[in-house]
Amino acid sequence: MRKLILGLAAAALLTVQANAETKIVCEGSSTVGPLAKAFAEYFMKNNPDVSVSVSESGSGNGAKAIINGTCDVADMSRGMKAKEFKACADKGIMPTPHVVALDGIAVVVHKSNPVKGLSLEQIRDIYTGKIKNWKDVGGVDMPIVVITRDTNSGTFETFENLVMSKQKMSDSCEVVGSNGQAKSRVESTPSAVAFVGLGFVEGVKAIDVNGIEANLETIQAGTYPIARPLFMYTNGSPKMGTPLYRFITLYLTEPGQEMVEEIGFIPVTSY
What we know:
This protein has 10 helices and 10 strands.
């Protein structure tokens, strides 16, 4: 019996090692998701013996996945919370952040909307329900349809921290589950406003915030008021030379930086 147990344990260890060499699982943020997918496609093309899967279920679920050991990479559009770090520590996991890009959260409206910019205070008043009509902020006489993200979203938490100043959003806000859904709702609704990652502004109009446009220069300089780093978390630093190490450091390479820019984010380094 003892030999059988040892044999099964050895087989299980070999399976884990084999998976570590041939499969990388990414889980989490829908903002980081398109970048993770671009990295995955490039990596698998150049490493056909390695499979990389990417799921977009929100930053909170990315944290849960690395805590539960069901992913190799947690994609997160916010930093890990203290309670998530503790949950990792309780399970012997060492969450290690990799800042793969910078992002501005764009406030977007329909292309036909004449409003070109809002202050942080005006945006906050729209989301609390204090301002209900576009005419009150220089637009046409039209009720504002306010779109927000689900509370499991890192984009939501960043917006809540940087814009809402601990004030509660109105219950009338319409909740959607991803950046793509928020963008689509605004694209099809002339009176709508939403906030999305900078990689999701095609087809809608990103307006200035406090008179500052969200672009490479203002986000790198830290002058755009709603900006953030984007993370990929691993359990410790991957061993150099392994597939996971080469995947997680793609953002430091020239092709990786090109992918970051093509998607609409800001590289953290520049060749």
